[in-house]
Amino acid sequence: LTVYVDDFKMSGPANVMSAGWALIRKHIRTETPTPVGKYLGCEHIPFVCPDGSGNVERQSLLTLPAPPLPVTTGSARGVSAAALSGNHGPSSDIRGMTWDMSDFLRQCVALYQELGGAKAKNLRPTATPFIEMAVEAIDSKEASGELAPVASRILMKILYAARMARYDLLRATCFLATRVTKWNEACDRLLHRLVCYINSTLDLRMTGWVGDKPEDLELVLYTDADFVSDESARSTTGVFLCLKGPNSFVPLSAFSKRQSCVSHSTPEAEIVAADAGLRVEGIPAAGLWEALLGREMTIRFLEDNTSAIAVLRTGRNPTMRHMGRTHRVDLAFLHECLESGHYTIEHCETTRMAADIFTKAFPVADKWKHACSLIGLARPGELFPSRLPKSTKGPAVAAGPALKASPGRPARRIVEFCCGPDSIIGMPGPGTEGCEVIRLTEAEDVTSAAGLAAAIEAVKHPNTLLWASMPCTGGSPWQHINSKRPGMKEKLERHWALARRIWCSFTKVALMAIKHGNEVAMEWPNGCSYWNWPEVVDFLRENGFRSVRVDGCALGLKSKRTQEPILKPWRIATTSAAVETAFGGFRCPGVLTHPTHAPCAGQETKGTEDYSPLFATVVHTAHLQHCVSSRPRNTHAACATCGLCGVAGHVSLMDIDMHLDCETSSVV
What does pTM read for this prediction? Predict the structure, then answer.
């Protein structure tokens, strides 16, 4: 039973609910109990999945599966074998709840438009509540913003919705709440962006479900921290608590809060965040759920910083002797909790860290959408894709619906620029259906007139990704040593001359791809000196390339001789947000998982040019996701027929789901 002033909400076994209400109404006059609905401004929408026909895939983008981590049995990542077989405990039913704050949030938008003046009337669609803005602009001492007198009133109303069932609003709202006494014009812009986002996502809902026996459920606590959020030099704590099982996921609570002490490093900030999460959320929740479930609860505590994990397990670190009293007390408390055996700490990949959304800004739409899915927030129909990559064992990449190809023409294309003849990207595998791969190898010679013309023609095809893996021999860090050997300087100069000719051809092909609305990606080892060439730096900057670092060992790259993982740090520069997001987080998991690495040298180096199966899967999945997400959008529900092919039913209220093989995007 939950009581808030004069509002009562009760749950329990169906056969005793009437008796329970009768006991209460014997002493308190109440209205007649009704099925759950709106409670404290939040609409509760229950649902039941009556069978195991794949509905449990709704958890696959949300959760790390039950221990051991990760579970990859079955056809969908994160879905257990029991889930796929329909064995969900005592029955096959999965019961869930959706929490909808849309009515209350409309009131928040109306309040902002009422108090915000003329500028508040123009609310544009936005994908995230954040904008890229320099810290200096936010912390500047410029004139007070126009919304300073009413900012607290608006923010506190939004904060109620954020704490109830819109956890995605916590970071932006709490950050602005720390600025109310020093509000400036930058804060005006940030608040306007926040309200634009709210107005654009009124249909965003939080969802949870249970499909397991009580004894199979556990409490999982995520804690995270950024490092130095603003001019105060303090970090931000993010905490997310949920109830989990092999076929269950229920978000319970979350918060975002600026730390009250200054940390000298990320591990120190993570320790403070872990203390706050366990002390404020984890331990109180354990007592409650022990009473509800009638058994002792062990909290599974997930942390993405391996240094912090090592310190918490040992209770000390010689490099942190400078820590102040706050940090020392936090560390001692956490170590004592772990020693008690009631709490276990495990490493979590950064891309699966559900608390990450509460610690930093996400101006990139793809990353923001993924972060929301980790805490159970999505629009109806978006959270639960029907297909996931079947062999992906790294950070999850959502796979959209398959693209339809026209007769004689593929739905999408990948052009491999300067690849090896055996590149795995061009081989059949997960996510390759409907994709044509064109290899431009050494035999095609992209520096020749014929090879360049073929490459330029290939990237004119719609839905094309240009993937470049240009030779990097002359840029190896070892070459500064080799150059001192007799005859090596001349050999290196030949490598450099060839690399510049290939780069010249690549820029021409890449510009043609960009001109036709296609995406470009290229990779070199992170330590390759070619990244520092002025012509490379200028081209990437002028054309909006973004970079992401990955480690080969996290992508399944292994020595053919010893089967040990090969570290090989790559840097990928790309114009595609989907590619950046897909590869984000593929970093070496550390000595606990990879205690040793095989050296990337000799024949092993040559073998890495063909990539690994997982690397190829991520490339294909990211490209497919980009093609699907880049389809035109429209909010006119009346449009119902593609103007070219005449096929009806492409269009829904939120998304024109048109055939990608139509030559135009004309819609009647």
Answer: 0.55
